[in-house]
Design brief:
This protein is α/β, with parallel strands linked by helices and 427 residues long. Among the domains are: 133 residues, Leucine Dehydrogenase, chain A, domain 1 (Rossmann fold); 148 residues, NAD(P)-binding Rossmann-like Domain (Rossmann fold), CATH 3.40.50. The strands form three sheets. It has a seven-stranded mixed beta sheet, sandwiched between helices. The N terminus is likely disordered. The chain binds glutamic acid.
Length: 427
C-alpha cells in the first residue's frame, strides 16, 4: 500500500514489467553480472506500437492498437505469442517478451524472446472482423517479423486460425509461401502434430519430474485449475486419466467444484458446446478466491498474470504450484509460497512445452521434413526433462528455489552468448 498526500490510501498497482524486471534483477545479482550485460538485458531491444483501422461488419470504422516487442535476439530469432485482449498493454508485452527470453534459454533453444498483442475483445468480434484485424496487424509488423527475425505463435485468445491468417498476410508480402514465419499453425499449412496441446503436455512432463524429485506420486492427488482455455483443458485431460482427482476448475465466467473429483471427459464435451465450465449443473459452483483456499495438493494457475498475489498467497495449501500461465504469481506472493514450503514449478520452465513444440514446428518448416506425433512428443519430453534437471542442479548449487534457479540458469546462458559477441551489440 502506498500512502498519498496523507489522505488517500492507494492500492499498489500490479505492473507486469516491474515484476519481470525484479525477477531478472535477483538472478543478475546472484550472478554478479557485468553492468553492460545487465543493462542490455534489462530493457527490450525493440518495442513497436501500431494502429490498425478496420470496418466492422455493421459498417462502423474502428481503430485498434497493437504491439510487438522483441526483448532479446542474441541466441536466435525472437519467439513468442500474440495475445488478443481488452487488457493488453505495452508493459504486459514487455514483461511477456522478457519471460520468453528466459523460457527459451531455460530450454536451451536457439531462439530469443518476443511477444505481441492487440487490444481488442475477440468474443465480441466476428470471424471476418478478426481475420481483417489480424491481416492488418501482420502488415503493420511485417518488417520486424520473419523466420530468421521473429516468429509469432498463439497466446491468449489467438489460435491456429489466427496463425494461418498471419502466415497468409506475411506470405503475400514476401511473395511466396512462408510457413516458418509463425508456429502453432493448422497442420494443413505446415503446422506440427502435437502443437495444440503442447503447453499442457509440457506441464505434465514437469509434474512427472517434480514427482520423482520430491518422491511425491501424482496418483490420487487433488488438483485445482484456474483457467480452462487451451492450457488448462489439455493438462486436465492428461492428469485425469493418470489418476489425479481434479476437484475444482474456474474460468472467466465461473467455476465448478466437487470434492470427489470432476469427470473431465463429460466436462470437455460440455465446454466444447458452451465455451465455459460455468453452469455445468452436476457440480457446485466456486469462485477463484475460494478455489485458491481449497485443500488441494496441486494448484495449476493457467489463466493470466498476477492471479496469485500477496492477498491470497498465504491461503494456498497446495504442495506443488505448476504455472501454466505466464507470470501468474507476483514476486511478493512467490516469497510467501516458498516460505510456506510450496514447491513452485515456475512458468519459464513449467509452461515451456508450447514454445518447445513451436521450435520443433519451426525446424520442420525450415527443413520441409515432418515428424510423427510420437517423435514430437518424445523430443519435447526429453527437452523438458533435461531443463527440469538443469534447474534442479542450479537450485542445489545456489541453495535456492526453482524460480530463482531457473532465472539464474537462463540469465547465465543469455549473458554467456552476449559476452561471446562482445560489447558492441547487433541490436
Ligand atoms: N504463447 C506461448 C508461450 O507463452 C507459446 C509461445 C511460442 O510458441 O512461441 O509460451
Amino acid at each position: 500500500m502506498v500512502k498519498l498526500n496523507n489522505t488517500k490510501i492507494q492500492e499498489k498497482k500490479y505492473d507486469p514489467f516491474i515484476e519481470a524486471t525484479m525477477q531478472y534483477e535477483r538472478a543478475a545479482n546472484s550472478l554478479d553480472l557485468e553492468s553492460w550485460i545487465y543493462n542490455r538485458l534489462k530493457f527490450p531491444e525493440k518495442e513497436l506500437t501500431v494502429h490498425m483501422t478496420i470496418t466492422r461488419d455493421d459498417g462502423k470504422v474502428e481503430t485498434y492498437t497493437g504491439y510487438r516487442v522483441q526483448h532479446c535476439t542474441v541466441r536466435g530469432p525472437g519467439k513468442g505469442g500474440i495475445r488478443y485482449s481488452p487488457d493488453a498493454s505495452l508493459s504486459e508485452c514487455k514483461a511477456l517478451a522478457a519471460w520468453m527470453t528466459w523460457k527459451t534459454a531455460v530450454l536451451d533453444l536457439p531462439l530469443g524472446g518476443a511477444k505481441g498483442a492487440v487490444i481488442c475483445n475477440p468474443p465480441a468480434m466476428t470471424e471476418g472482423e478478426l481475420e481483417k484485424l489480424t491481416k492488418e496487424y501482420t502488415y503493420s509488423i511485417k518488417e520486424i517479423i520473419g523466420p530468421n527475425r521473429d516468429i509469432p505463435a498463439p497466446d491468449v485468445w489467438t489460435n491456429a486460425r489466427t496463425m494461418a491468417w498471419i502466415c497468409d498476410a506475411y506470405s503475400r508480402y514476401v511473395g511466396h509461401f512462408e510457413p516458418a514465419v509463425v508456429t502453432g499453425k493448422p497442420i494443413e499449412i505446415g503446422g506440427s502434430l502435437g502443437r495444440s496441446g503442447a503447453t499442457g503436455l509440457g506441464m505434465y512432463y514437469s509434474l512427472l519430474e517434480a514427482s520423482k524429485h520430491l518422491e511425491y506420486p501424482l496418483e490420487g492427488k487433488r488438483v485445482a485449475i484456474i483457467g480452462y482455455g487451451n492450457v488448462g483443458c489439455s493438462i486436465a485431460e492428461l492428469l485425469y486419466p493418470y489418476g489425479c482427482k481434479i476437484i475444482a476448475i474456474t474460468d472467466i465466467y465461473g467455476g465448478i467444484y466437487n470434492r470427489n473429483g470432476i469427470n473431465i471427459t463429460e466436462l470437455s464435451e460440455y465446454v466444447t458446446r458452451t465455451k465455459s465450465v460455468s453452469g455445468f449443473k452436476k457440480y457446485d459452483s466456486i469462485t477463484n478466491e475460494e478455489l485458491l483456499r481449497l485443500n488441494c495438493d496441486i494448484l495449476l494457475p493457467c489463466a493470466v498474470e498476477g492471479m496469485i498475489n500477496e492477498k491470497n498467497a498465504d491461503k494456498i495449501k497446495a504442495r506443488i504450484v505448476c504455472e501454466g500461465a505466464n507470470g501468474p504469481t507476483t514476486a511478493d506472493a512467490d516469497e510467501i509460497l516458498v516460505e510456506n514450503g510450496v514447491f513452485m514449478l515456475p512458468d519459464i520452465l513449467a509452461n515451456a512445452g508450447g514454445v518447445t513444440v513451436s521450435y520443433l514446428e519451426w525446424i520442420q518448416d525450415l527443413q520441409k521434413l515432418f515428424y510423427s506425433e510420437e517423435e514430437v512428443k518424445t523430443r519435447c519430453w526429453k527437452m523438458m526433462q533435461k531443463a527440469f534437471w538443469d534447474v534442479i542442479r542450479v537450485a542445489d548449487k545456489y541453495k535456492t528455489n526453482m524460480r530463482h534457479a531457473a532465472y539464474i540458469l537462463a540469465v547465465q546462458r543469455v549473458a554467456d552468448s552476449i559476452r561471446m559477441f562482445g560489447k558492441i551489440g547487433r541490436n
